[in-house]
């Protein structure tokens, strides 16, 4: 499998999992639009992307999901991972807690600075070490999360909630949101469109 095949495998696995799991009407509409776009667009990996990973990425080995659509997503991500340039949030700009920088990593498979450049769609994954709180943030694109682990989230005035392994939720444009891990790592896929 070349890199483009691995990207397509991940996109197809994510599409199937979102289609099976998203019940929120806005999340369904958004993810259907996202994967329709990705299905019709040529997904050409940027060959100039230099892979990079951080020690925190070792927590990926501790993410455990049941057999089925979720293991297909995780397996496809693991196959793609050696080609990805993991990155960290700008911690100064986001007023992150001390230690946050080393305790998280994000990977963008599709998106403006992703392995596959795309202007409208972003498809990526966050990995957070145990006992870590991600800073509150917001962004104009709407977003649907697919959680691959335990861990808590909030958006707007929801208070903290636990979608659970395979749980999903939709963030409306501009809503404030964050996540935090418990005793294990937090791993979640996000799909955004503008
Ligand atoms: Fe977000």
Explain how this protein is built.
The structure is a single chain. The mean pLDDT is 96. It is built from three helices and eight strands; from the N terminus they run H-H-H-E-E-E-E-E-E-E-E. With 194 residues, the protein is of the alpha+beta class. The chain is 24% helix and 23% strand. The strands form two sheets. Strands 2-1-3-8-4-6 form a six-stranded mixed beta sheet, with helices on one face. Strands 5-7 form a two-stranded antiparallel ribbon. The chain has one domain (3-193): Jelly Rolls (Sandwich). The longest helix is centred in the first third of the chain and has 19 residues, at 3-21. Helix 1 (3-21) runs antiparallel to helix 3. Fe (ii) ion binds at residues 137, 139, 143, 177.
Main sheet specs: 6 strands, mixed
Total strand segments = 8
Query: In terms of per-residue confidence, which ranges show pLDDT below 50 for 5 or more consecutive residues?
Result: none
The computed structural class is alpha+beta
Helix content: 10-25%
- The count of helical stretches stands at 3
Total domain units: 1
Radius of gyration: 15 Å
How do the strands line up in the largest sheet?
Answer: 2-1-3-8-4-6
Q: Please state the average pLDDT score.
A: 96
What does the overall shape look like?
Answer: globular
Order of helices and strands: HHHEEEEEEEE
Bound molecules: fe (ii) ion
Considering the protein shown, what is the CATH homologous superfamily?
Jelly Rolls
The CATH class label is Mainly Beta
Question: How many angstroms does the end-to-end distance come to?
Answer: 31 Å
CATH topology: Jelly Rolls
Percent strand? 15-25%
CATH A-level architecture: Sandwich
């Amino acid at each position: 499998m070349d890199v483009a095949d691995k990207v397509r495998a991940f996109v197809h696995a994510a599409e199937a999992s979102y289609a099976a799991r998203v019940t929120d009407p806005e999340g369904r509409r958004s993810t259907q639009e996202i994967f329709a776009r990705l299905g019709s667009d040529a997904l050409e990996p940027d060959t100039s992307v230099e892979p990079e990973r951080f020690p925190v990425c070792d927590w990926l080995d501790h993410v455990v999901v049941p057999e089925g659509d979720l293991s297909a997503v995780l397996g496809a991500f693991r196959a793609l991972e050696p080609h990805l340039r993991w990155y960290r949030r700008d911690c100064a700009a986001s007023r992150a807690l001390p230690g946050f920088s080393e305790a998280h990593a994000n990977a963008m498979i599709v998106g403006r600075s992703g392995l596959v450049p795309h202007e409208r769609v972003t498809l990526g994954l966050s990995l957070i070490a145990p006992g870590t709180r991600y800073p509150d943030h917001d962004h104009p694109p709407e977003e649907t999360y697919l959680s691959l682990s335990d861990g808590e989230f909030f958006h707007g005035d929801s208070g903290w909630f636990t979608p659970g392994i395979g749980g999903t939720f939709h963030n409306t444009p501009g809503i404030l949101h964050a996540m935090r891990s418990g005793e294990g790592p937090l791993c979640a896929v996000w799909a955004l469109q503008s």
